[in-house]
Amino acid sequence: MTTLPFYAPVSDDFDAVNTLILNQLHSRVPLVEKIGHYIISAGGKRLRPLVVLLGARSCGMDDARQHSLAAIIEFLHTATLLHDDVVDTSDLRRGRSTANALWGNAPSVLVGDFLYSRAFEMMVALGDIQIMQILANATNVIAEGEVLQLSKVRDASTDEATYMEVIRSKTAMLFEAACHTSGVLAGATAEQTEALRKYGNALGIAFQLMDDLLDYSGDAAEMGKNVGDDLAEGKPTLPLIYTISHGTPEQAKLVRNAIQKGSGEQIELIRDAVTASGALEYTARLAQAQIEEAIDLLQALPASPYRDSLEQLARFSVDRTF
């Protein structure tokens, strides 16, 4: 994953962050370390710590505090993954069995709690009250987003505004907080810090829109999860919401019934319906609009390879197939 070009300017920083993450996974309880190492070693794109490093560097930061902040953000993200997989009863993530599939729900939830609390210990050590305020608020908003999404499972009447509220809270909030805190930590100007915050929000929204699009157009092996997982969980994502609103009566009925049943049995028919209705193109257009806004915001930062990488990352988020 780190062969993608936008990782290159902070490759040494990434190595330092990975070392710090492994050091901070220590626990006197062996199962905590075992599950922690398993979920962290799955890797993934590590985009949230990446935007911390690129954001801080683009504002002139050059010390190890950015590594701590990047590790904190990764721990918060990993904790949400552990909890998500329990809530969603998922058995596959990043092409591997989920922690809850291997060890059960209870250990997964508790290790998620451990990672949250370790992240806050590291925040205290960082000693910046504004960063603690931003991240404390972010974890609250993320939890609210999770509960809102849960309350809409199998609810085929969910509208686009509610869906957008879910993804702003559940996904975009941590991207926003990662970018926002990178500017704060770097001592950037108010304009630069606000530009980074808004960039993170736009990037996160676009990223989730594309994830939801790829759930119907992607390849399971490439994505590391089962195509149609969201439908099987009864989640009304934008391609489905759009198809119900803009598809033919037959397409709308097919999708509505699938959401209400929480079934992926007719996934091929659903894929045909969301494609024919124009839902995938609509979702892609919304994502592209977010990315254009994100790239415009970057003009507040001084020209540098780090700003270039933030732009490349934004473009990647809508061009990707995984």
UniProtKB/TrEMBL annotation:
Similarity remark: Belongs to the FPP/GGPP synthase family.
UniProt xrefs under PANTHER family: ALL TRANS-POLYPRENYL-DIPHOSPHATE SYNTHASE PDSS1, GERANYLGERANYL PYROPHOSPHATE SYNTHASE
Named cofactor requirement(s): Mg(2+)
Gene3D superfamilies tied to this protein: Farnesyl Diphosphate Synthase (1.10.600.10)
Protein name per the record: Octaprenyl-diphosphate synthase
PROSITE patterns: POLYPRENYL_SYNTHASE_1, POLYPRENYL_SYNTHASE_2
Keyword vocabulary terms for this entry: Magnesium, Metal-binding, Transferase
Keyword match Metal-binding: yes
